[in-house]
Design goal:
221 residues, alpha/beta, 4-stranded mixed β-sheet, 9 strands, 21% strand, globular
Amino acid sequence: MIVRFFIVFLTLVLAACAAVQPERSIGRDLDDTNASLSIKAAMTRAEGYALQGVDVEVTDGLALLTGTVPREDDRRYAECLAWSALAVRAVENEVLVSDPSRLRDGARDGWITQQVRSRLLRDRSVRSVNFNVEAENGRVYLLGIARTRGELERAAQHASLVEGVTDVVALVRVVGESAAPVARGERQAAACGGEPVPANADLPSLEAPEDVRTAPVTPID
């Protein structure tokens, strides 16, 4: 089977005085967990919006939204709520506007997720603890931190080799790489249909994902 394979690299702008560690810290993981719970709770309380089909995963300050909703307004409001969590530095809205009858194969996605995690765990060239894996209808999302771009490419190739995977999207911060920031307030305002909300000065913004479909991939032995 030919796997359609592309990688989207997401790099974090580092604060000038911030110390960078190539590991996911306990404090960062706790912030991510609290942000995820906060967003899910807000979606549960949202009146007039059908958000029960939205899944939320926050890793290293990036909120990944997946699933399906019946209307574009629902999709946009889900992103608005994701931006409301102060620990969220960027939002990747992968929610689809689709017929409610479109079912997700949760069991298949769970199997794919476990297979990808297993491959990363067995590869000593990849620090698997720094990566989070999510699967949605055959599409695999990699989140977290990569020590080098080569490590990220290797992790992405592992995911692409799992049976049933159709796409690999890597939303990963590569240590030491930087890029021009995207205003957090403006992106939140666009999602919420209101005025820009000032970003917390302690939370650097993330640039938009860059599509690098032709990026070289390190061969796996």
